[in-house]
Amino acid sequence: MDTKNKLPLEMIYHWETARAESIYMVQPMGGGKVVEYTWRRAVGEARRMAAYLKSLNLPEKSRIGILSKNCAHWIMSDWAIWMAGHVSVPLYPTLNATTVGYILDHSGCEVLFVGKLDDWESMKSGVPDTLPCISYPLSPDNAFKSWNDIVTKFPPLEGNVQRDPEELATLVYTSGSTGRPKGVMLSFDNLAYSAAGGTDALDITSNERMLSYLPLSHVFERFVVELGSMHKGFALYFAESLDTFVEDLRRAQPTLFLAVPRIWIKFQHGVFQKLPKKKLQKLLKIPLLNRVIKKKVLTNLGLQNVRFAGSGSAPLAHEILDWYRSLGLELLEGYGMSENFAYSHMTKPGRAKTGYVGEPLPGVDVKLSEQGEVLVKSPATMMGYYQDEEKTAETFTDDGFLRTGDKGEIDELGRLKLTGRIKEIFKTSKGKYVAPAPIENKLMSHPDIEMVCVAGENYPQPHCLVMLSEDAHKKMADESFRNELEQSFSALLTDVNKTVDPHEQLKFIAVVKDEWSIENDFLTPTMKLKRNVVEDAYKVDLDAWYAKREPVIWQ
């Protein structure tokens, strides 16, 4: 079957017959139990749920929300919504009640799927009592109609419902790192083009296996995992919890694996806990042991079968990228936005260049503005922002290019290097501009640093706020460890300052006690720093810290 221009629903109808008895999704149910969904069963249950949604007689193209962690029912809900003629609205499973309420109201949701959640109690006040809800088998206790009861009662929707390529398929709300979430409108054609271009660029086949654990409400996971699997027909495995993550990885034995930088850093820290960095480097230099050690490290991570691994959502420090590649893991960086369904740039195997996020994917046009802003255009570019024509107009150039808000450089092979967010660049009191991201990438190479924020607007020199890794934080009670860490950070400061321009040199590293998390609003649901929140939290301390004139300051 030629899948080049096939829309999402067309693809699942194809696999419903072509791979009817092949396992498509493997869902952990707790206690070591899993449920396997063949293509026939998965599409069949979606058809039954679609029949129920049709029975509600909702207005045409109603918005229907999905509030859940990743699971098989998340994907089947998406299909059912489309089959019933409606629009899916994913919500991050870590949102607070206020944001849940805002998205449900702004999108005009008529129904909500409430699924697998860790903290439903803190969310449910954001869901109106009048909004009809449907629960999954893994949902928290509730009085909603249940998925299993519905699919048992309703016969499957007959025939293969088609949707217009230009029709609105989904509303993806941005993570809100710079304010209220915006509703990105994506068409069926946007989704189809991304799926075809992304999977073809890497020669993805139906024999792949992926573990789905990053939020499906984020375009990065949805593009590669949901749409990629629908386009090529490969198998998906779901993670049960953080505690079972290694077990889930071993069950899946993925051939493709996605992670955000924070996870790649945690993996590396975990390796160094078992095998110190210096010892590992020595072992890797021994010819007879080199291959054995590499295989052992990747096997312990559950990544021994991975053909391609991807990192996205934020830049990954060069040293960490190089470290994984030295183990033989083809770790590819990608670049994209909610506004183009994460379909923009990707590192091609064998063409990686440290510091660059890759080349344009098929059909992507890219150029730089006079200010150096990266401008992109492709058939994956959004229809616009929902109910916000003014913001939509601001986001596009007169010739239809999407303003990414990122500054960049392009090399002779078309590979893109990101040099900072235009809105993140700040001015010191000397009138000099500083782009924090490149400096942060240099600092993130330190094994005891979990997260970092370079700031310093209206001060003579920038400074750096550091959150320690979990392992380092536990050791802080040991005075000798703290002294060693202080010396190490002082040396790091000196080394980093040698590589940047004088106006970018950091005055000090401040080690904070707080944990920056989604729960305390320091991070977005996609684990990006909310810079304004982080900077505001320590603003009261800055004058005293600058006055100390010390290279390392402990909060």
Q: What layout of secondary structure does this protein have?
A:
Blueprint: H1 8-18, E1 23-30, E2 33-38, H2 39-55, E3 63-67, H3 72-83, E4 87-91, H4 97-107, E5 109-114, E6 133-135, E7 145-146, H5 147-153, E8 168-173, E9 183-187, H6 188-201, E10 209-212, H7 219-232, E11 235-238, H8 245-252, E12 256-259, H9 261-274, H10 277-284, H11 287-301, E13 308-311, H12 318-326, E14 331-335, E15 345-346, E16 359-360, E17 365-368, E18 373-377, E19 384-385, H13 389-395, E20 402-410, E21 416-421, E22 426-427, E23 433-434, H14 436-443, E24 449-455, E25 463-468, H15 470-474, H16 479-498, E26 509-511, H17 531-538, H18 542-548, E27 552-554
Parallel strand pairs: 1-11, 3-4, 3-5, 5-6, 6-7, 10-11, 12-13, 13-14, 25-26, 26-27
Antiparallel strand pairs: 1-2, 8-9, 9-19, 14-15, 15-16, 17-18, 18-20, 20-21, 22-23, 24-25
Helix pairs in contact: 1-2, 1-7, 2-3, 2-5, 6-7
Brief characterization of the structure:
By secondary structure, the protein is an alpha/beta fold. It contains 18 helices and 27 strands.
Walk me through what this model shows.
The protein has 555 residues and is of the alpha/beta class. The protein folds into four domains: 225 residues, Rossmann fold (3-Layer(aba) Sandwich); 78 residues, no CATH class; 88 residues, Luciferase, domain 3, CATH 2.30.38; 129 residues, 2-Layer Sandwich (GMP Synthetase, Chain A, domain 3). A five-stranded parallel sheet has the order 4-3-5-6-7, with helices on both faces. It has a five-stranded mixed sheet with strand order 12-13-14-15-16. A four-stranded mixed sheet has the order 2-1-11-10, with helices on both faces. Helix 3 links the parallel strand 3 and strand 4. Helix 2 crosses helix 5. The protein is globular and about 70 Å long. The termini are far apart. The model has no long low-confidence stretch (mean pLDDT 90).
